[in-house]
Amino acid sequence: MAEQIVIAGPASQGLAVKVAQILQARVVATENKVFPDGECYLRVAVENDGMIRGKDVIIIQTTGASSHSDQNQQIMQLIMMISAVKRMEAAKIRVVMPYFAYSRQDKAFRPGESIFANELCRWIEAAGATEFYTVDIHSTKILDVFTIPAFNLDPMKILAEEIKKRGVSDPVVICPDKGAFERSRAFAKYLGDNVPVEQFQKTRDVKTGEITMEGELHVEGKEVIIADDIIASGGTMAFALKIAKKAGASKIYAVSTHPLLIKNAVFKLISAGTDEIIGTDTLDSPSMQCSVASVIADAIQGDK
Ligand code: R5P
Question: Which of 88, 149, 187, 277 is the most exposed place for a label (fewest CB within 10 A)?
Fold first, then answer.
């Protein structure tokens, strides 16, 4: 079996080190900068090509905008890392992209649009990836574009364990839209036996982005957990929070795998009545209370 080397992409440094520690693999850092004209520069910090040649290389790099860099820059850095280790003749190139940017552009909603999520898969594969891993992708259909093995990892157990630490009693899980139902059901199962899941029907105007939600909740006096894959602007979660609050929930947790929390999302969520925002470290966020490192390491160990 080839030696495993983890490359810590600039956008996932902490997570990469944690995964390497579980795998007991060597971890290699990267150097990066942006040239004055805006072009990205990235170097995998090895002394020579021999450190990569013939190795089982695991590149960990998320693509979720943070205060350090945006997703477009992170994508460029990812492609540069794949291309560099390919040139240095890695035996295997496993790409772990914990948050999949552009995953919500998985359909042509209006004439003239690109299905950019699919293009990103083609680009990653063409650069040289031999396996692909992501966490709780917005739509698993996107992964069908790959011809290399591609895996969607489930963080619901980790999130449920985090909630259990708060000692919730008699909880109800709320699912903010139809697409999130399976995720919410899995989450509720990890939370305990017979935890009910209630669902909204969300619609979003494709032109204005305006959200409406329909559905009646039975949460009077209950501790409520609203579970979604992404909190971006916070619009969806804030809407759901207000309805749960109005329906008499005693406590409300806003849970998401990928707490992007852009612009004034935190303000919106707190004002809408959440008691806590809980997320994972798939991206650099103030709400990353729990780590998906073990989920990633288990998947890699299970696929030697
Ligand atoms: C949409 O279908 C997703 O699952 C999320 O609900 C949505 O992307 C969250 O976005 P925002 O926080 O901007 O409402």
Answer: 149
